[in-house]
Amino acid sequence: MTIYLPIAELPVNIFTLLALGIAVGFISGMFGVGGGFLMTPLLIFLGVPPAVAVASVSTHMAASSFSGTLTYLRRKLVDVRLGLVLLTGGLTGTLAGVVAFMLLRRHGQLDLVIAVTYIVMLGTIGTLMVAESLRALLREWRGEKANVRRPGAHPWFLRMPFKMRFRQSRIYVSVIPVVTIGFAIGFLGALMGIGGGFILVPALIYLLRVPTLTSIATALMLTLVTMTAAILMHAVLNQTVDAVLGLVLMVGGTIGAQFGTRAGQALPAEKLRLLLGLLVLAVGLRVAVDQILTPADLYAVSIDEAAR
Amino acid sequence: MRRLAAPLMLLLLVLAGGDARSAEMVLSLSKARVTITSNFTGDTIVLFGVIDPGEAARPAPQDVIVTVRGPSESFTTWRKERFLGIWVNVDSRSFLAAPSYLAVLASRAPELIASPETLRREQAGLDNNRLLQRIGSDYADVVPQDPFRQAFLRVKQAQGLYFERPAGVEFIAPNVFRATIPIPGTAPVGAYEVVVKTFADGTPVSRGTLSLEVAKIDFEQTVATAAQDHPWLYGLATALAALGVGFMANVAFRRD
Lengths: 308, 256
Prior knowledge:
The structure holds two protein chains of two kinds.
Chain A: E1 2-5, E2 10-13, H1 14-31, H2 36-46, H3 50-74, H4 80-106, H5 110-142, E3 163-166, E4 171-174, H6 175-192, H7 197-207, H8 212-237, H9 243-266, H10 269-292, E5 299-303
Chain B: H1 2-16, E1 25-29, E2 33-36, E3 42-51, E4 63-69, E5 72-83, E6 86-99, E7 102-106, H2 110-113, H3 116-122, E8 132-135, E9 138-140, H4 147-158, E10 162-165, E11 169-173, E12 176-184, E13 190-200, E14 203-216, H5 218-229, H6 231-252
Parallel strand pairs in B: 2-14, 7-10
Antiparallel strand pairs in B: 1-3, 3-12, 4-7, 4-13, 5-6, 6-8, 8-9, 11-12, 13-14
């Protein structure tokens, strides 16, 4: 059964879209990532114009992150205070990212910068996560005790001034690194057209040492706010939000996210981190392969502006 | 039956108002408006044409080339080159006001119908359509062998929006022809131009044009116009709908 998408201006199979929503929703609920870095390329593959894909995915991400945030809020796993501090940096970062996006597009190298950023970010984060979680699993397998966090063992950047206590996350750290992380996520998110959850979760876990589940829950809350802002921004500036596409995706996505959230809680934290690390690494490799392999056609055609 | 009725009617029309001075044509489309609704997956339109043979001394047109052009858009064609192991866009060419949809339907392969010069002048055949490029500060069409031009045609053909069918025009009687114009589901919305040219012994004889419209209606149109005219409202409504769906799913699946 096909459905015509009024803004994307093409017919697609409704079941393909639903399945896509459920699969990506499952992953986003499980790992607390928005899923944009998976969904956007898949939609473009289906023939949806990139501008419409990026804008419409934000509606799907808003819906599934809201659903996930509610679940985590009820389980009291969201660190609202940490989320708000991250947001102050995040919103400034988004603005800087939008400006960088415009400058790079003017010089015609936006695609390349996006691809290289993807490869570097995903490759680094994926490798770090996989290595760390494998070490943790190995320790457990050998029956060794995990390192207990000692209060005095904070790295230098957490010992900077303006310290703040985040009770939910059980950390007492300087706000400077928190705001900086928020800024970086906002910047990369705007530049790469993603929610940034898959970068934020490891950053919270490894840099700020927030417990895994709290990191996931707080990242979901952040995704919710940034994606709701993104819907409005895209709708007003580009008119590229396809409500029909978004609705089908979000119905599948929210259902998938519910199961994903449960699956995420059923798994031990180390295994969850290993899986997310592998996923991030796989997407990074995929982008790298695309850039290195000789393309089928050395020429590509894009529609100028017109915001179609 | 409707397919037969149309050419018969046209024949009557031609006989009634015959002007023998030049070979005239009467054209008719099975519908002049393609409407896009939620189950739209593409459509086909049938074009009927009747050629008035004119005075017996004149050669009867032997060939027909139908060209359908969708609304114009500007495109950029990029060329990639390997740089430090990565494929990078190194060069680009702007195609200004190129048709977003281009169908060439002919009674036989265009190169058999007339000389390359004539075809080029008449813009008959996929390779002979004028595609204006911006080269530096100049605007011009280039030779058909230009790699950017060929790449542009190749990509558009792969997208199913450009095509040439050498057997797309069929004569159902000596002076009556029929052409089927496929409109794919991804066809852009807007005004389309149908140009029919007839040839006899390699020279153009007559030409006729029709217009065709592809438009969204009902729900599709409502959504598209709302997004255009009330972007704030549309954005807010979409955002609220998203939150609503998220909330409902959360409540529906609540277990604790």
